[in-house]
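Sample intake sheet
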Amino acid sequence: MGNFEVNILIKHFGVICVSSPAIEFHKKLRGKISVEAKAKINSREDLSLAYTPGVAEPCLEIAKDPKKVYDYTMKGNSVAVVTDGTAVLGLGDIGPHASLPVMEGKAVLFKEFANIDAFPIALDTKKVDEIVAVVKAIAPVFGGVNLEDISAPRCFEVEERLQELGIPVMHDDQHGTAVVVYAAVTNSLKVTGKKMSDVNVVVNGSGAAGVAVSKLLAGVGFDDAKQERVKDIVLLDSKGIISKSRSDLDENKKKLLVFSNKKNISGGLKEALSGADIFIGVSKGNLLTKEHIKLMNKNPIIFALANPTPEIMPNLAIEAGAAIVGTGRSDFPNQINNVLAFPGIFRGALDAKAVRITPKMKLAAALALASSIVPTKNAVLPSPLDKSVVAKVAEAVKKQAILEKVVRE
């Protein structure tokens, strides 16, 4: 973690800068991305080719065959980063204007890691119908859509309603997180000598990330009986374990019981962790204790992913007997960061000319990520700065898209 992170204090939904490097950085740049023209206009001939009259020719070709838009324009290498500003990092609902630095940052990561041209689209609406309508309306420009920092449950409906758009659409807070967590679990089990099919998992947090992580680990959406999946998953929300015994569950949470909490356990974190092998926290900091970890099976795996404060600090988890501890922070070993997933997933989807991102494409990404390192206790995933990971993930995603035939003809 850099000095700018150390010197930021998050209080409620505001950010108070104890010192100013991050503020000065952003003020100096006035935006972290810009448009750079590939076409250079140095002569009348250049102008006539890039604009009128020459530009009419590709326009007419595309009008005759819309698929040629991928041959003559930026569409095939561009992604819209779309948000409504309702679930921004650890800051919550701060609105579209305040979300813009994060969306710009996401666009920078797309370019730096996968050479994809991404553009921030911050929408001043929280209505699902309006978000869906806007994304559909701007889709002709883009080859893919990365939904970002949209709160649950609207994020689920927005993503679902955009799946038939004809271009890859993925909510990164859900599936990027799921991919990196699945890879981290896979490699942690290698280190601890446990099998996926034997472990019980506790996921604290039933929002976008928690649900997606649980579904991927449980094998939801896979018809292949050979696909490895965990023995059981117990999810918790702010009121405790999600179980059939509760009468306050909405329809979205009731659906989770189709694949989770097979023994119908009730209670809170203490009851959930008794006999568990893996804890995955995607909720809030300082809610897991050493006593909780001592309730778990031998050599438990702890992924405390709340930011900036983990559910438990790594040193405390290790003192309590944890075999492997991961967080979302860069100042501790085993950083679990979405940048290891989404650039490669979209690179592979764009290269394959995929029309959607399927569960098996996400699984292929996770397995490729896991196989890109020989895991150790303190390094179950590659460094988020390892740009070689993108090519491996992209190739796996591309192959799977072609195998499933979810590509443009």
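Comment: The mean pLDDT is 93. The first strand starts at residue 8 and ends at 11.
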